[in-house]
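Milestone 3.1: sequence recovery, worked example.
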């Protein structure tokens, strides 16, 4: 369930970052949020694989 929630927020952060780039306003905040979501998702998947 946690992986699904993190996956959803990662996709939303990715869409927000791409929208900012397309508008011509590549912000640092959007990129950091996306990087944080990707790291958390990766950690959740790694823990899930270890437990499984």
């Amino acid at each position: 369930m946690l992986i699904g929630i993190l996956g959803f927020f990662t996709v939303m952060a990715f869409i927000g970052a791409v929208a900012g780039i397309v508008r011509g306003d590549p912000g640092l905040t959007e990129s950091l949020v996306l990087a944080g979501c990707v790291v958390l998702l990766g950690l959740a998947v790694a823990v899930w694989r270890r437990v499984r």
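Helices lie at 2-23, 28-51. The chain is about 90% helix and 0% strand.
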